[in-house]
Amino acid sequence: MLHIKNLHASIEDNKILKGINLEVRPGEVHAIMGPNGSGKSTLSSVIAGREEYEVTEGSIEFLNEDLLSLSPEERAHAGIFLSFQYPVEIPGVSLTNFIKTSMNETRKAKGLEPYPAKDLLKKMRDCLELLEMDKGFLSRSLNEGFSGGEKKRNEIFQMALLEPKLAILDETDSGLDIDALRIVASGVNKLRSPKNSFVLITHYQRLLNYIEPDYVHVLFNGKIVRSGGKELAHELESKGYDWIKQELAEV
Amino acid sequence: MEILDKITKSDYKYGFTTDIESDKAPNGINEDIIRLISSKKNEPEWMLQWRLEAFAIWQEMKEPDWANVTYKKPDFNAISYYSAPKPKKVLDSLDEVDPELLKTFAKLGISLDEQKRLSGVAIDIVVDSVSVKTTFKAKLAELGIIFCSMTEAIHEHPELVQKYLGRVVPRTDNFYAALNSAVFTDGSFCFIPKGVRCPMELSTYFRINESGTGQFERTLVIADEDSYVSYLEGCTAPMRDENQLHAAVVELVAMDGAEIKYSTVQNWYPGDVNGLGGIFNFVTKRGICERNAKISWTQVETGSAVTWKYPSCILKGENSVGEFYSVAVTNNYQQADTGTKMIHLGKNTKSTIISKGICAGKSNGSYRGLVKIGPRADNARNFSQCDSLLMGDGCGSHTFPYIEIANKSAQVEHEATTSKIGEDQLFYCNQRGIPTEEAIALIVNGYCKDVLSQLPMEFAVEAQKLLAVSLEGSVG
């Protein structure tokens, strides 16, 4: 589904990614872990198409298509979803209106008619329930005055509605209390299927207790320095990132 | 809307009946020209005298230069002050219309027949429309509502016109109001009798005895005790006009317990992307509220090269309420200096000001507002919120709030914010599949929500589209 080959990316002449290789197949859940500044969020921004980042080398293919030649909205239409670490506020735009616009633009890009309002509303209600969110959310301005936890839940809510093929969750667990974490994780688990894939970007092993990954990768200094199964996350948790740094220094 | 559609399709008469040349006054302004205007309109002597006095006042006045706009001052002797009907070339089909204009029409969702009407293509008169218009007029007449052109009102209702014309905006008020009083050619007149709630939105758009918006329009709306009227002015479609200078005067009178809601969408030609051409729009709008009365101004200003406009409320009666909701968009080289004046004279008077400026391109937008609390206005309250949204680095936004308080019990609040449409907001929308142009429209409409929600429903939908069209291409 997603093939990343030797990806190099920089921002304002700072080289952040220095040769990433990653392959995600349908149905898989990958966790990318690493210390601050290792390039985790840059990787998610580059996949989603943020313009400030310049790809200097390498390639990304998504469903056998050259992802780097697509605009951010075309990538979204193709089925890529990014759950933001810091979701923005858009005052005066209700969540309902935003989601309606988002879903219908995606349908329009595929040559489909707008979603019938009644069906959309029903779908929204189902997804609200999934994330244990109150109906009142729908009429609130997008993320305005939302608590940190509400913002993250809102991201997963939108993900549930948009049904992406590949969802990248950028530090979705940060700022969540234990109850919110459980709700978000169970939402993600219900959306897991053999057809869609997840990339979880996280600092801590905590999230992975709730969402079990198939693979864990350690990102350090712009490169994936180690890959393994879920046990790698436990190892990291007990030994800390210094362990990796030391090993690398020895090599 | 259906009725509106039908009525607007009817009675397209420009260019069929009158020999245009013979009806156009020579350039320049003097007493003879004013006499000519008055006699062409067959006006009574009192009206002529009123105009001549206004002209004398105007001659003593100087063009104001305090607004934050720069433009080449019009040569008042190079203007023709009377031309009726408006000279418009009748085209045979839409193929002859500027394709850019047609594109805009399509984006605004304007029907084909309406497109023809607006761009001056001859259309067949819909048989049915005559009866619709009659029904419409009959319904208003049944309630005692007068809604007609100013010219007709001068002839048919001289006592009302004499009593109220210039009462809220005196001829001495300002340079443009004096000029308008001397040379106005037409406008709308509306009277709602005591206790009557006008059952439909009155609109200049489908005014009975349509005579075209003039260069110097004069509007007078009188709401008698405990009556209500909602009045719409302008339309969202781009308005092109040969006249560069527009100086209108609008006067509202809300008697005890009456409510007037006055909504405007202004989309005059703003000039091209390099700032050439475009309308100068210098308007004086003011209303007076008696006891328990309410006047609410809502405006969406997207057009004109230069706008100078401050719809105001004189809150004379106790417990009266004034509101001003404004969205002003400037793009390319447009300049707007707009705002309001809330003059609190009576006790327990309340006013609300919500102003949303949006600047793009190389444009300049200013909010200028006065809140004045008189010595006898005990417990007067005002809330003002002035927000500016900037797009790009070439534009400017300014706020000039003036507050004069002569009563200790007053409560005046002023909030102001300036923000930019952020890359972060756009990227977030893009990531959710929303292309940049649509994202801008979404963000701008959200920003203007508090104002747009004040507009009548169909108007609000059109205004939303208009905002999107006005800002097209403003983020690279």
What descriptive keywords fit this protein?
heterodimer, A: 251 residues, alpha/beta, Rossmann fold, 6-stranded mixed β-sheet, 4-stranded antiparallel β-sheet, 9 helices, globular, B: 476 residues, 11-stranded mixed β-sheet, 8-stranded parallel β-sheet, 13 helices, 19 strands, 29% strand, disordered N terminus
How would you summarize what this structure contains?
Chain A is an alpha/beta fold and 251 residues long. Chain A has helices at 40-48, 72-78, 95-109, 117-130, 148-162, 178-191, 206-210, 231-239, 241-250, and strands at residues 2-11, 14-24, 29-33, 54-62, 65-66, 80-83, 90-94, 141-142, 166-170, 197-202, 215-220, 223-228. In chain A, helix 2 (72-78) packs across helix 3, helix 4 packs across helix 5 (148-162) and helix 5 (148-162) packs parallel to helix 6 (178-191).
Any chance you could write out the topology, listing elements then pairs?
The complex is a heterodimer of chains A (251) and B (476).
Chain A: E1 2-11, E2 14-24, E3 29-33, H1 40-48, E4 54-62, E5 65-66, H2 72-78, E6 80-83, E7 90-94, H3 95-109, H4 117-130, E8 141-142, H5 148-162, E9 166-170, H6 178-191, E10 197-202, H7 206-210, E11 215-220, E12 223-228, H8 231-239, H9 241-250
Parallel strand pairs in A: 3-10, 3-11, 6-9, 9-10
Antiparallel strand pairs in A: 1-2, 1-4, 4-5, 7-8, 11-12
Helix pairs in contact in A: 2-3, 4-5, 5-6
Chain B: H1 2-9, H2 31-40, H3 45-59, H4 99-108, H5 112-119, H6 129-142, E1 146-149, H7 150-156, H8 158-164, H9 175-183, E2 188-192, E3 202-203, E4 218-223, E5 228-234, E6 245-246, E7 249-254, E8 259-266, E9 280-289, E10 294-301, E11 306-309, E12 312-315, E13 321-330, E14 335-344, E15 350-359, E16 364-373, E17 381-390, E18 396-405, E19 411-420, H10 423-431, H11 436-447, H12 449-452, H13 457-470
Parallel strand pairs in B: 2-4, 3-5, 4-7, 5-8, 6-9, 7-9, 8-10, 9-11, 9-12, 10-13, 11-14, 12-14, 13-15, 14-16, 15-17, 16-18, 17-19
Antiparallel strand pairs in B: 1-2
Helix pairs in contact in B: 1-6, 2-3, 3-9, 7-8, 10-11, 11-13
